[in-house]
Amino acid sequence: MAVDLRELLGPDGVARIADLAARTSSSSVTRWTATGRLLRVLPHVVVLPEDAGRWRTRALAAVLSTGGVLSHHSALSVHGLADEADRVHVSIGAGRRAPVRVRQVTVHRVTGLRGARVDGLPVTPVARTLVDAWGQAHSGSRGSRYPDVARAAVITAVRNRRAGVAAVRGELSRRPELPGRAVLRELLGHVAGGSQSELEIWGMRHVLDVPGLPACRQQHRVALPHGVAHLDAAWPEACLAVELDGAAFHGSAEARERDLRRDAALAAQGWLVLRFSYRRLTREPAVCRAEIAAVYRARTTSTVR
Q: What is the pTM (predicted TM-score) of this model?
C-alpha cells in the first residue's frame, strides 16, 4: 500500500531524516529519496518536491537542519515587518560549530540567543530581530535598498507596539560593534519622541522645529465626541495642529471624508489644523515654517488680548 507522505511530513512538507526514519524506516526514506518522492534539500532534512519552493518550507528546513532559530531578515519576515527574501537566515549559539555551508542559507553564530515562536516558526524576539537586521543592513554586504527596509521595520515595530524603544535600546547596548549603531540610536531618538513615519522624522528636522516657537508635541492626544485624535504635531497653548500628508495620502474618498470630519470636530473645540502635503513639505520647508509661525503668533496674540 502506498504511503501518504503528505500525512507523514505535515502541511509544510518538511522533516528531519532521523525523525522520519524513526516513524517509518531508514530504508523507506532512502527509497523515497532515490525515486524523487522526497528531496534532500539540506543536510539531515527532506521535503516534498511540490513544497520545495515555498519560503516557509525552506525556512523550516533551515531550522531543522541547523537546530537554530530564524533571525535577521528572515525573522523580520516572520514578524510581518518585511517581505520574504530568497536567502534564509538562522542563528545558533556561539559555542556551537558552524554547520556546513549550503546554498541560500546563512548561519550566524551569536551570543545570548533566545527564541520565540510566531505562527509555528522559531524566531528571535522582535527587539533582537530589529538590531540583528540593522547590523545586517549596514554591513556593506546588502543592496542599497536594505537599510530602508531595516529603518521601516524599526518605525513600524515601535508604532504598532511590537517592540518598545527601551527594549531595542537594551539590545543595542549589548552590541557596541554593530554596523550603523549611531544611525540606529538617532532613529530611536526620533521614534521615542513620537515620530511614526519617515515623513514625520523629516518634518521634525526641517519644518516643525520652528525658530522662536516652543517645541511642538508629537502625537498629541485630543478627545473627540466619536474617538480620539492623535495629532502629528501640536501647540496646545495656541490650539494649533499640523498634519503631515504623505505622498500617497488620501488614497480613497472615504479617507479624505474621514479626515474632514476629524478636522471639523477639532475646529469645534477651537483647534486649527494646518495640513501640509508631501510636495510642499519637501519643496518649500521654509515657507511651511513661516506659515506655522505666523498662525501661531496670530492665535496666541489674539488669546492674550
A: 0.87
